[in-house]
Amino acid sequence: MRSPLFDSEVQAKLDVIREALKLNFIAGVRFRGVDWFSWITGGGNSVVILTHEAGIADVLVTPTQCIVLTNAIEKDRLIEEELPDGYPVHAVAWQDPQKLDEYVRDVCEGEPVASDRPQLGEIPLPAEILAAKRRLLPIEIERYRDLGRDAALAMTSTLMKATPEWTEFDLAAEGASALWKHGIHPTLTLVGGESRVSRHRHPFPTAEKLGSHAMLVFCARRFGLYANFTRWIYFKKPTETQLQRTRDAAEVEAVALQASRPGASLSSIYESIVKGYQKNGYSDEHLKHHQGGTTGYLSREVVATPHTSNVILEAETAVAWNPSLVGAKIEDTILIGKNRTEVLTVDPDWPTFEVNGLQRPDLLVKI
Question: What Å distances lie between residue 313 and 131, 135, 205, CA to CA?
Fold first, then answer.
């Protein structure tokens, strides 16, 4: 993962940032979020506590500098394990974090500074930088393919071990373990067994037993990128209603994917999804769960709503739509190219069915 200082990936991102600085009369950008740290370092990790949105290091970019800001505790590990070779690091004593703010003020000479998480009079990031983060470079796509494959293999191995007597805790624990074995952060492992999955769209694991069937959801992060996907296991033959709802959810997703073309706004895709539910006889199901959106360095970079007309889908952007019905849900992380739709979270051994020429995940029946 580590690469020479400011290789083509990092340099391409710096070029976008510096052009935005010039156009918006900004002296610098301070990236605080763990998502932005990974993006601007080519997959580096500033996380210590998995649930924190801001990590143990920031990155300051100016017209002439790009430098990591951290404390002395973290400096050596970042240099040795997380940063491209030669990436500059400015560290202060952990007891004096305010000195990082002073450093930024000095470097930027008191002029305006933008940030993903503005503080101390900073301003929000320009739209050009936000869009660049969603638009994946070839090397990022390769990382994403590797992540999607490994996460999907972890999902399959987890569910193949599961039994009806397992608790939801057991399934979540096995899934998290399988992801860690691939060096993947299990940022979310939702589990809903027979008694809960039809009642809750976000079933956080409990001590309930799985019973006749279960849903497992991963939001799996490596090198900052997220693989988001959902799979179902049945320990008995699914009913006709369960099978039909699985197909109906896939039909709604197919409408979303058909609308997911470069140049489309997220709000227009959302409206297509609503019509997809209506066409399949589910007039209000879109109100019971968010429908997904763009993904990448966040589980959802932007969630599609009727109010996201300002977010335009570009080529080489990842999306994760997740239409859901009572007892049914479909989700994968999918790359939208100029002339292709590529599912990234794929295990070739998982059962599938075809919808609009695309193989979609079926129920895993293990009797």
Answer: 9, 9, 34
Question: Tens digit of pLDDT for each residue in 294-335?
Answer: 999 999 999 999 999 999 999 999 999 999 999 999 999 999
What are the residue ranges in the chain where pLDDT is below 50? 1-4
Q: Which of 9, 65, 11, 345 is CA-nearest to residue 182? A: 345
Find where tokens 């292709």 sit. 340
Which CATH topology does 8-134 take?
Creatine Amidinohydrolase; Chain A, domain 1 (3.40.350)
C-alpha distances in Å from residue 172, one per residue of 152, 166, 213, 216, 367: 15, 10, 14, 8, 21
The DSSP annotation for 138-206 comes to: HHHHHHHHHHHHHHHHHHHHHHHH--TTSBHHHHHHHHHHHHHTTT-EEEEEEEEETTTTTT-SS----
Between CA 219 and CA 222, with CA 221 as vertex, the angle to 5 degrees is: 155
Structure tokens at 18: 């510096």
321: tokens are 């739509």
Model pTM score: 0.96
238-278 confidence digits (pLDDT tens): 999 999 999 999 999 999 999 999 999 999 999 999 999 99
Nearest CA to 246 out of 237, 256, 238 is that of 238
* In the chain, ranges of CATH 3.40.350.10 domains: 8-134
Q: How many Å apart are CA 292 and CA 306, to the nearest integer? A: 13
DSSP 285: G
Report the alpha-carbon distance of residue 187 to residue 226 in Å, rounded.
Answer: 9
Cβ 80 vs Cβ 58: under 8 Å: no
Amino acid code (one letter) for 64 = T
Report the topology of domain 138-365: Creatine Amidinohydrolase (3.90.230)
283: Cα within 13 Å, side-chain hemisphere? 0
SS3 percent helix, strand, coil of the chain, rounded to 5, is 35, 25, 40
Looking at residue 2, what is its pLDDT?
A: 46
Q: Within the chain, which residue ranges are assigned CATH 3.90.230.10?
A: 138-365
Q: Would you call 218 helix, strand, or coil by DSSP?
A: strand
